[in-house]
Amino acid sequence: MNDMTAAHRTLPFGTYVMVTNLGNDRSAIVRINDRGPFVRGRIIDLSYAAARVLGIVGPGTARVRLETLRGFKAPEPSAKSAIWIQVGAFSVQENAYAIKRRLDGTFPGVVVTRFKTNRGTYFRVRVRTDEVQARPLAQRLAGEGYPVIIVRE
């Protein structure tokens, strides 16, 4: 429920998929770890964490685009991993920089990073942190309405 995972009828377990909410252009990478959905007309069941990032928790369903990320491997956690709080991923660079400007005064270390896929380029808005501050910072950003995920790279 709290991991970035999803259920799909046919994709192999362990497959990483970029899911984009077509209604708000938010994207998230999820790992397939279950079978489903078993409701006609639905192609993927997202965990609560993934649905929250994509802005689907309220409505419950949305039109989405799936992109299988071949060769994508999740980073192995290590003591030297960088820890980021991601507050958004946008296909329009200006939207990412608008969020960055909004956060800059209150949250030091906000950056926009580029992430390329076969379908296009995404601009991720992230705040760098450490292991001790990651959860409190994520809770603070979530309290301000941002769909946060903690990323270790």
Structure notes:
This protein has 153 residues and is of the alpha+beta class. The chain has two domains: 64 residues, Beta Barrel (Barwin-like endoglucanases); 70 residues, 2-Layer Sandwich (Alpha-Beta Plaits), CATH 3.30.70.1070. The chain is built from three helices and nine strands; from the N terminus they run ββββαββαββαβ. It has a five-stranded mixed β-sheet. A hairpin with a 5-residue loop joins strand 2 and strand 3. The protein is globular, with a radius of gyration of 15 Å. The relative contact order is 0.19. The mean pLDDT is 88.
What's the layout of helices and strands?
Layout: E1 5-7, E2 16-21, E3 27-34, E4 45-46, H1 48-54, E5 64-68, E6 83-90, H2 93-104, E7 110-117, E8 120-129, H3 131-143, E9 149-152
Parallel strand pairs: 1-3
Antiparallel strand pairs: 1-4, 2-3, 2-5, 6-8, 6-9, 7-8
Spatial ordering of strands, largest sheet: 4-1-3-2-5
Q: What form results from the Cα inertia axes? A: globular
CATH fold name of the largest domain, please? Alpha-Beta Plaits
Characterize the main sheet: 5 strands, mixed
The fraction of residues in strands falls at: 35-45%
Low-confidence parts lasting 5 or more residues at pLDDT below 50? none
Could you name the CATH class of the largest domain? Alpha Beta
The averaged pLDDT comes out at: 88
Q: In angstroms, what is the radius of gyration?
A: 15 Å
How many separate domains make up the residues?
2
Report the CATH superfamily of the largest domain.
Answer: Sporulation related repeat
Summed up, the helix count is 3
Helix content: 10-25%
Q: Compute the separation of the termini in Å.
A: 22 Å
Structural class: alpha+beta
Secondary structure tally: strands:
9
Q: Tell me what the CATH architecture of the largest domain is.
A: 2-Layer Sandwich
N to C succession of SSEs: EEEEHEEHEEHE
